């Protein structure tokens, strides 16, 4: 490409060495020389022009992009631009920002958290394979595993007690291809001992995939605790304002795929040549090979592309992530401690509380600040829950978490309604349990609101 005043400037991709608060504002941004825009714009284009015939050939061959041919801000990670199902400059800003905040190599943005989980695991497992997951995970993920994954021939084995080595040994089979867990499980805030699971994963040469939706990189960065891949529902805290569904997969870049295959695992999308004459993803993209496989061999095939409009809301939302999380957690700590002392409350599932059985892990990994999504069980079972929920005004009765607004839902009759009773019981999803997501309103107002709900419980 010849030099012209209308070319985008060289992307500013390197924010290494800068603090989290600086990177959440700047990582992934690029100055636009054409217009001088300071905020990366919404790039609404389904496709991208090829410079000439050979440029098209090169882009489809996946050779490194010519200058200006890749998305600004992510030249190393994204292919020369072809089509927005595969990548988009607005989404590339969000991808690079999130990769920086998580401490990974490359991120891939997709259309929802469910798409992120599916795409992350479809790049690792195929028909006839298995995945091991901790049992305490978001209800929608368990439904995804039990329905669609099973229909596609991928079985999921659950480990109920992550401390029990024998259970892990029983659950991991020769055709197991990944371990899956959440940092702060939704809805019960029963924080996961990632280091322990990472040891199991390393022993069995399995990549550890961690959903960090509820934790966010502002509170915990799973790669620092041994995870290999991080997934997000960006719908929640990352976008932050409840307006846009989205998801992302982040490659930690450290997993040794070849050693895993020598130990009997199988990752053909990463290690095998996709077609004669073209090297494997690993040969061509090294520490970003997994992300590239997700983007090209899963997301581009199946098609859960993120709208650039939602990508814009995501990269803008992340600019204030650490500030919002601080307030979310300050309020949650105050509210959880207050709830625990109320006579109408049977129990509060917040690992940041000193009495919680997982408080040791909460202290070690989170400094006691275990997010803002947690359970509270009110007196009186389902009728107590009904009275409580109907007495609230500031808390919105809705499905969702990680919004500026506080939200409440009754898991047993919503997210977990399709579960067999014995599974719900074993997961601790009881009739009086409510999931709270504490928003950014005044904590005093939220406590007054919860008190109004508890008054209804008391009056029953
Ligand atoms: C922990 C977790 N992972 C994944 C999802 C799914 O995300 P999405 O609703 O964006 O598909 C959710 C949704 O609540 C979630 O809480």
UniProtKB/TrEMBL annotation:
Its cofactor is pyridoxal 5'-phosphate. One of its GO terms (molecular function) is transaminase activity. InterPro entries: Cys/Met-Metab_PyrdxlP-dep_enz, Cys_met_metab_PP, OAc-hSer/O-AcSer_sulfhydrylase, PyrdxlP-dep_Trfase, PyrdxlP-dep_Trfase_major, PyrdxlP-dep_Trfase_small. Pfam families: Cys_Met_Meta_PP (PF01053). Keywords: Aminotransferase, Pyridoxal phosphate, Transferase. Belongs to the trans-sulfuration enzymes family. This is Aminotransferase class I/II-fold pyridoxal phosphate-dependent enzyme. The lineage of its organism: Bacteria, Bacillati, Actinomycetota, Actinomycetes, Micrococcales.
């Amino acid at each position: 490409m010849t030099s012209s005043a209308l070319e985008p400037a060289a992307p500013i991709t390197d924010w290494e060495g800068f603090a989290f608060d600086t990177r959440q504002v700047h990582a992934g941004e690029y100055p636009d020389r054409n217009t001088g825009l300071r905020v990366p714009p919404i790039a609404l284009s389904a496709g991208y022009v090829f410079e000439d015939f050979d440029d098209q050939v090169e882009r489809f061959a996946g050779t490194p992009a010519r200058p200006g041919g890749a998305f600004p801000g992510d030249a190393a990670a994204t292919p020369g631009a072809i089509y927005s199902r595969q990548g988009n400059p607005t989404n590339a800003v969000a991808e690079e920002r999130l990769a920086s905040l998580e401490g990974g190599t490359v991120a891939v943005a997709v259309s929802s958290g469910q798409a992120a989980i599916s795409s992350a695991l479809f790049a690792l497992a195929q028909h006839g394979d298995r995945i091991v997951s901790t049992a305490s995970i978001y209800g929608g993920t368990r439904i995804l595993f039990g329905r669609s994954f099973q229909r596609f021939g991928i079985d999921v084995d659950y480990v109920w007690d992550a401390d029990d080595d024998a259970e892990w040994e029983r659950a991991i089979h020769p055709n197991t291809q990944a371990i899956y867990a959440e940092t702060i499980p939704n809805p019960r805030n029963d924080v996961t001992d990632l280091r322990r699971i990472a040891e199991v994963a390393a022993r069995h040469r399995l990549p550890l995939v961690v959903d960090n939706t509820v934790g966010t990189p502002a509170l915990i960065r799973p790669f620092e605790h041994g995870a290999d891949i991080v997934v997000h529902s960006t719908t929640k805290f990352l976008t932050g304002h409840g307006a846009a569904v989205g998801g992302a997969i982040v490659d930690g870049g450290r997993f040794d795929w070849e050693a895993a295959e020598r130990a009997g695992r199988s990752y053909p999308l990463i290690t095998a040549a996709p077609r004669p004459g073209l090297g494997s993803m690993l040969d061509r993209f090294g520490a970003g090979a997994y992300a590239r496989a997700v983007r090209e061999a899963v997301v581009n095939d199946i098609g859960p592309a993120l709208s650039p409009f939602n990508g814009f809301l995501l990269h803008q939302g992340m600019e204030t992530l650490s500030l919002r999380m601080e307030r979310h957690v300050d309020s949650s700590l105050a509210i959880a401690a207050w709830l625990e002392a109320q006579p109408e409350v049977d129990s509060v599932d917040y690992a940041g509380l000193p009495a919680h059985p997982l408080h040791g892990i909460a202290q070690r990994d989170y400094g006691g600040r275990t997010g803002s999504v947690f359970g509270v069980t009110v007196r009186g079972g389902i009728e107590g829950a009904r009275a409580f929920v109907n007495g609230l005004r500031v808390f919105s009765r809705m499905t969702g978490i990680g919004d500026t607004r506080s939200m409440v839902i009754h898991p047993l009759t919503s997210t977990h309604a399709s579960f067999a009773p014995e599974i719900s019981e074993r997961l601790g999803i009881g009739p009086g349990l409510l999931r709270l997501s504490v928003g950014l309103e005044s904590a005093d107002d939220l406590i007054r609101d919860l008190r109004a709900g508890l008054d209804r419980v008391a009056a029953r």
